[in-house]
Amino acid sequence: MKILHAMLSCFYIDCYNYQENTLPKIMNDLGHDVLIVASTEILCENNQVEYLEASRYNNEFGIPVIRVPYKKIINNRLTHKIRAYKGVYEIIENFCPDFIMFHGSSAYELNTFIKYVKNHPNVRFILDSHASMTNSGTNWISRNILHKRFYKPILNKALPYLEKVYYIGTSEADFLKKIYRIPDSKLELFPLGDSIFDDQEYYKQRKKIREELGYKDDDIVLYHTGKLDRNKKTLEIINAVVSANQKNIKLCIVGGMTEDVSLVVMQKIEEYHNKIRYLGWMNSTNLKKYLCAADAYVQFSYSSTFQTALCCRCIGITTDPSNGYDYIPDSIIFYIMTRDDLVKIIEKIGKGEIDINKQKELSYAYAKESLDYNRLVKKILS
Q: Which regions of the chain does DSSP assign to beta strands (E)?
């Protein structure tokens, strides 16, 4: 099958583990002929948006990528909001896809795909959206002018040609219903997830990393990751681990720290170096291997790595479900609102009052059924 991924409503970054990177890879691995058509927008490590030159190349998986130039509309700010591009119809026509996945709900260029599918009615067409009130339509002008009056009519125009509009969580579904008025009949959950290691690879990575870090078999290792700013509450997590005072509980921290937290956090890590390790920043491939060495994943804020941790057989400890995990069964998540909540959970784990192995099996079973991208890809292509 010839499959086209359109990354024209969002940034696209090579060598990352975002959903937009992983799905084309899996489809390519399954033997399909895959093409990525992307904007020139990327996101740098400091979360700043930058723009590359238009180009054609093969990405790290050997998948052809065509980065297309914007059509200039008055000024750069408006150009990057409208998201109209040059030469897209000709690219689609030359590739002749059987299946199109349009990533994102916010682009004028969706009109081009509507035109193509209208002219080629046998082409299967789906769209997925990650937009929610926390990352889109965050002010009155954006919500009421850009989304409701500009993007909404385009997406509604596409509905007769779309098989499904996929969303990654409940808040994203609410955004599609309230802002875009997408009917339930078109909506379906396609959660963030990851590929899953088989038993042999999982235990191989777990043994290797735990030996590298010097952990014993009976050590229970917690991981905390991400862009470590004040919102991540890294210091509170460290203090909770220290306060719980469970000898077999260890904490690994992965990510880049912002200046406002790094000094005090690093001082605390140095003070409790026998219990807490800072592993620095890792790319997604290495992080996934290191998560195999973990037993639990701890966050006070939303993180897409949470689902990867479940795929690596970790139990999940996080803040309230309205942060984006409310579609995941409560049986596999321990919810925390305060540092004291976390202290109590760590104490229960350390004392064996929470069966860590049983909880890990629940995470693994759920991830295999609901978060495994290989399974999800086959589902949407069937």
A: 2-7, 33-38, 41-43, 49-51, 55-58, 64-67, 99-103, 124-129, 164-167, 187-189, 220-225, 249-254, 276-278, 296-298, 315-318, 333-335
